[in-house]
Structures are given as C-alpha cells and as structure tokens.
Automatic annotation (TrEMBL):
PANTHER family: 2-NITROPROPANE DIOXYGENASE, NITRONATE MONOOXYGENASE DOMAIN-CONTAINING PROTEIN
Keyword Manganese annotated: no
UniProt key word Oxidoreductase: yes
Protein name in UniProt: Nitronate monooxygenase
InterPro entries: Aldolase_TIM (IPR013785)
Lineage: Bacteria, Pseudomonadati, Verrucomicrobiota, Opitutia, Puniceicoccales
Alphabetic keyword roster: Monooxygenase, Oxidoreductase
SUPFAM superfamilies in the cross-refs: Inosine monophosphate dehydrogenase (IMPDH) (SSF51412)
Pfam families with a match to the protein in the record: NMO (PF03060)
Ranges where the record places region Disordered: 338-369
Length: 482
C-alpha cells in the first residue's frame, strides 16, 4: 500500500538522518517543531539507548518514554537490564550489548524495539512537523525490531539508503498489521537466508498503526526508476557525492583503483528522469544555502535534505567538546573532509573529517584492531559446516582470515561502530587499555558564520532561518523535555 501524498502537506526541508545518534530525538524534535521533517537515526539505536541508560538516564527522558511503551512489562525488563542510576563505574565501562544475528536473543529484540520506540516518541512529543527514522539497507539484522518500535511510536516516514531497499515497503505493511515477517539476509558466499521477526514480542493492547511514508535514498536515476517499478516507494531523497556519511561509489570505480573515489559525468543524476516518475523528491548534498530550496523546486524537487549543517548545531548528538572543536577548526579553515574509498567495512565510500584526536586525524593502521564488539557492519557468510558466521573487515586480520575473508579486504578499514559511538559520547573501553577515539563523518562544513552570526555556537533554528524556513512554534507543553 502506498501512502497518498497528494493529500498531505510535504515538508520543504528534511533534516537528514545521521548515525550513530547524531540526529537523535533532540535534533529531530527541534526541526519538527518548526513544521519541517526531523529524522532520528535508527542505526545502533539499541546500543545508544543501552548506553544512555547505563549513564543513569540523566534527563529522565528514556524513563518518560518507557511509561508510554505499550507493553509495560517489556519496558520494565529493559530498564532492569540496562538502567544504572549510579552511572558508569569508569569511562567506557559499558556492559556489552549482544550482537545481532539470524536469531537474536529475545532481550536484544526487546531492547531494539523499545529503543527505537523511545527515540521516535521523544522526537514526536507535542510537535507539529513530521518525524522520520533513517536506516541503512546494508545493515540488515537489526532492521525489523527497530522498524517495529518506530511504528509503535507513530513514526511518519521511514527513510532508507545504503543499498536497494526493495523489500522494506512490504515489510512495513506487515509490521503495521502486527504480522510476523522476515527480512532477507545477504550471505556473502552462499544462498541468502531469512531473519524472522514476530511482533507478538510486544504484548498488551497494541495501537492501530498508520502506514508511514517510505522514502528511498538514491544516488542514481536508474535505481529510482527500478524502485518505483517495485512499488511501495512514496518518494526519493536524491543524494549527490558531496553529502556527509556514506556515498554511492562512482560508476565503474573499484576499491583497488585507489583510496579516493573520483566522480565524473557518468555519475550525474538525471533529474528529469526522476521527475517523470511523478513521485516527490528532495535533493541532498550541499543544499544549505538561502537559495537551495528555491533552486531545488525549480528543478522539480519538493525541497532539500540537509545533514552537515545540523550535525554541528547544539541539538546534535555529537559529543559537545568534539563539536565545539570541529566548529573552531572549521572557522580557522584547518579542517578537511575526505572521501575514503576503503575506510568503511560496508565497501561504500565514506566521508571522514581530519580532526586531530579523532580516527579521521590518523591512519586506519594506528588503531589496534579488536574483535568486533558491536557487529553492526558484519557480513554474514556460510561456514564450511553450513551454518551462518559473521565477519567484519575491520576486525583483527587473523580472525577475518580464519573466517574465510581475504586479507586485501582488510586494508584501510576503520571500525565505524566504535568510532561513531565515541563521536556520540559513548566511547567504549579498548581491550589493551584506553578508550576508543571518535570518528567524525561530515559533508563540507561551509561558512559556519552564516549560522553563528557572531555567536560561538548555533542551533537548528539558525540553520532553518538561513534556509528561509518560516518560524513555527511548538505547543506550550512541548517545553517539558528540555
Ligand atoms: C554526521 C553525518 C552522519 C550521516 N549519517 C547518515 C546515515 O546514518 N544514514 C543516511 O542515510 N545518511 C546519513 N548521512 C547523510 C545525511 O542524511 C544527508 O543526506 C547529507 O548529510 C546531506 O548532505 P550535506 O551533508 O551536504 O548536508 C549523514 C551525514 C552526516 C553529516
């Protein structure tokens, strides 16, 4: 079933989903309170909420959201497992969260469902604008419980990129009907398998769920055309190669051809072809100027999606001292964004910021590899005995080779899970001592003076003002969570 978008007011601006926890509920809520679309990141939200709870849920917001979760007993179990009123014993000493697999343990499914519910519920609380959740197609194992939690909280839009999300619209329909369903898991050297999910995990009086819009994030008109033929897609985010986070690889580019992907005329997206599909679309990548929305509209787009400008504003989930340092270096023009061809274990080009004291400021080899402790970017492979195993090209080479991986795949890989969690203020302890360095992904941090206007910091409203978004205010009750 496709949502009829002709009757609903579409936003001109979508605040891009930014993982891990950079676009958390605070940022999404700030944008939605101005009537535009705020998007929370669903990536590793289970881990993020487990960390926040272990740090004592200092602002009490997770416990507020827990009280609204439809299954009180499940919410209580999650809090009993993860909430530590006294906080962490020492920096980085988080209790490990189990890794996702084909049949994840029930407590992990409960945590993931609960966590995405909380994130969306908090973002949506008393605001007028729509709230979406962003997920990466490439990360498959946690997708269904995270989607279901978001649906239970009434998420308005699901946005998905980093892959070809053909199956997702049908799965959203099944989850909206609280039906058991299964997601196909790609297995690197064998036949794909299914990861089942049964929504009856959540008991009690369940709400009737409305079907959210589904927006696919694409970097080519060919993919947009193909997805529109598969059905269930309500629109597109059309993302160019300068956007922060992961990018699509240039056409014909192979990772062996060099670390820095170069984009050329073959990578240009034919917007006329996308327009001819008759679905709304938003342009992403360097679209944060006062004229960006008007220019996008002139090209037939509904508006724009913006990430980087929001990633460094005060409501961002980026650890504050890191964020302030990045702003200061950017103002001093001493900061560069690099597109790393080999950095991400996903195999997609990934943008990193060369900020000192972060992974992007040093070579990938400078971090001692550790056995994978979050597992979000692991790939499934078929073992000799026929069972499914998991490997990540950023884990210790010996482990990866033992699992049948190739040494060449390990070169230049960074541990994104740990680096990005550290960027969000959740650095985990390393085995040999010390804590993980942050890894900052970003698009081009252009002329921050536009948002700062002489101040030392800026917030989401400054970005919205710069983009010419009219002021809309949250209801009075909305002040309760600040
Ligand atoms: C810090 C950061 C993290 C991002 N993470 C994701 C992500 O998890 N999923 C995704 O689809 N896009 C991600 N993006 C891309 C944004 O959603 C958005 O499309 C992009 O930032 C727009 O380009 P801009 O950065 O030039 O504004 C990320 C961008 C940034 C800056």
């Amino acid at each position: 079933m496709v949502t009829d978008l002709s009757t609903s007011k579409l936003p001109k601006l979508i605040q891009g989903g930014m993982g891990i926890a950079i676009s958390g509920w605070k940022l999404a809520r700030a944008v939605a309170s101005r009537g535009q679309m705020g998007v929370v990141s669903g990536t590793a939200i289970d881990r993020v909420v487990a960390c926040r709870l272990q740090e004592g849920d200092q602002d009490g917001t997770i416990r507020q959201a827990a009280a609204a979760f439809p299954d009180g007993a499940l919410a209580t179990r999650v809090l009993e497992r993860w909430f530590k009123p006294e906080g962490l014993e020492r920096p980085g000493a988080y209790k490990p969260v189990p890794l996702f697999s084909v049949s994840p343990p029930k407590p992990l499914l409960e945590l993931a469902t609960f966590a995405s519910f909380c994130e969306v519920w908090l973002a949506k609380r008393n605001v007028r604008g729509p709230v979406g959740i962003n997920l990466l197609e490439k990360i498959q194992a946690p997708t269904l419980p995270i989607l279901y939690g978001a649906l239970l909280a009434g998420v308005d839009t699901v946005l998905m990129g980093a892959g070809i999300p053909r199956e997702i619209p049908g799965l959203i329909d099944q989850l909206c009907a609280h039906e058991p369903c299964a997601l196909k898991l790609n297995v690197e050297n064998g036949d794909d398998v299914e990861i089942p999910f049964d929504p009856s995990l959540v008991e009690g009086a369940l709400p009737v769920l409305k079907r959210p819009q589904f927006l696919a994030i694409v970097s080519s008109h060919v993919l947009a055309i193909s997805l529109s033929r598969s059905g269930g897609v309500d629109g597109f985010i059309v993302e160019g190669p300068i956007a922060g986070g992961h990018n699509a690889a240039p056409r014909g580019w192979k990772v062996e051809s060099g670390d820095t992907p170069r984009y050329g005329p073959k990578d240009e997206i034919n917007l006329e072809r996308i327009k001819s599909l008759g679905l709304p679309f938003w342009l992403a990548g360097g679209q944060d100027a006062p004229h960006s929305i008007a220019e996008a509209e002139a090209l037939g787009a509904q508006g724009v999606q913006v990430g980087t400008a929001f990633a460094f504003c005060s409501e961002s989930g980026m650890e504050p001292s890191l964020r302030h340092r990045a702003i200061a270096y950017a103002l001093a023009e001493d900061l560069q964004t690099k597109t790393e061809g080999r950095g991400s274990p996903t195999g997609y080009p990934f943008k990193t910021l060369n900020l000192s004291g972060t992974e992007g400021g040093r070579a990938p080899e400078d971090r001692e590899r550790q056995s994978c402790n979050h597992g979000y970017l692991r790939s499934a492979y078929r073992k000799a005995d026929g069972s499914i195993g998991w490997r990540c090209a950023a884990e210790p080479e010996a482990d990866y080779l033992r699992k049948g991986g190739k040494l060449a795949d390990c070169v230049g890989r960074r541990c994104l899970c740990n680096g990005l969690l550290a960027t969000a203020g959740f650095p985990h302890a390393m085995k040999g001592g010390g804590i993980e360095y942050p890894l900052v992904t970003s698009g081009i941090m252009r002329d921050l003076h536009r948002f700062l206007k002489g101040k030392s910091d800026y917030d989401a409203s400054d970005v919205l003002d710069e983009l010419g978004i009219e002021a809309e205010f949250p209801t009075r009750e909305a002040a309760f969570v600040h």
